[in-house]
Amino acid sequence: MSAPDNRIPLAVGSGVTADGQGRYIVGTLNVSGGSTPTSGGPLGQDANAYVLTFSDEFDNGFQTSKWNDHIWYESSNPTINYKVSNGSLKIWPQRDASGNFFNRTIDTDGKFSQTYGYFEAQAKLPIGKGTWPAFWLYAHPGNDRPEIDIMEAYAGGGVDSWWSDANLHPINYGVTLHKANADYSYHVKPYEAKLRDFSQWANGVDLSAGFHTYGVKWEPSGITFYFDGQQVGSKYWDTEGYYNRPMYVLLDLWFGSASGTPDHTTPTGEGNSYEVRYVRVWQFK
């Protein structure tokens, strides 16, 4: 998961326009209340085209058979800043025993991965300086470590950053495709779309005020991103391309990047959670 950089245009769906600078304006999305899937398939998709391969509705505690509580190159921080309760996974900003904010990653590494399909989560985002929640896909080990960022938000950037409002509430989020070269030096394979000017074009929606659905349809020929069931960006290629390895699911709350450094103003505790109602994955029939 990396900060946005080096962008080029994507094709965009209905209700979205591009400004020619790698930025995307949401013109007609109705996102005031979010949406909840009512069928057996992804939101806005034909359920008959998919078969469910993974799900967690977070109604049965934290399932260690499905999830790890740290990314592979770190050990788990003993300070607890996550739990499953009332039908949601919650991850919140917290200082550890040394007084420092720390990253928390919940992922399916070694427990579930899939090549292609539809990946979806419904979530409400935290607020405050430094907060950097994300929902993404990744593959390792190996020199080529593909990454699909389905949602990452930077509430701490402030109103001038266009990521957040003056109260450091997230009002935009980014989707990105990343690639690593053979010497492990990461760079953006610059395919990127952003939802821009939410406050102007989506009735001032605050992504921390309610739940919204974030999804990606990953096909051999390309990748399409969705917000509340509506297409917001896509990238297609002529050959099978780089994104053809099994990838696993990550939900995390990190700090920094375009969101800045957390400080005494950053709300801590469960009340400021990155809250996820479900994660579901389907394969094409």
UniProtKB/TrEMBL annotation:
One GO BP: carbohydrate metabolic process
Transmembrane parts of this sequence: none
InterPro entries reported in the protein's UniProt record: Beta-glucanase-like, ConA-like_dom_sf, Glycosyl_Hydrlase_16
Top-level taxon: Bacteria
A molecular-function term among this protein's GO annotations: hydrolase activity, hydrolyzing O-glycosyl compounds
Location of the GH16 domain: 29-285
UniProt entry keywords in alphabetical sequence: Hydrolase
Pfam families per record: Glyco_hydro_16
Family according to the record: Belongs to the glycosyl hydrolase 16 family.
PANTHER family xref list: GLYCOSYL HYDROLASE-RELATED, GRAM-NEGATIVE BACTERIA-BINDING PROTEIN 1-RELATED
Protein name: Glycoside hydrolase family 16 protein
Organism, scientific name: Pyxidicoccus fallax
Organism phylogeny: Bacteria, Pseudomonadati, Myxococcota, Myxococcia, Myxococcales
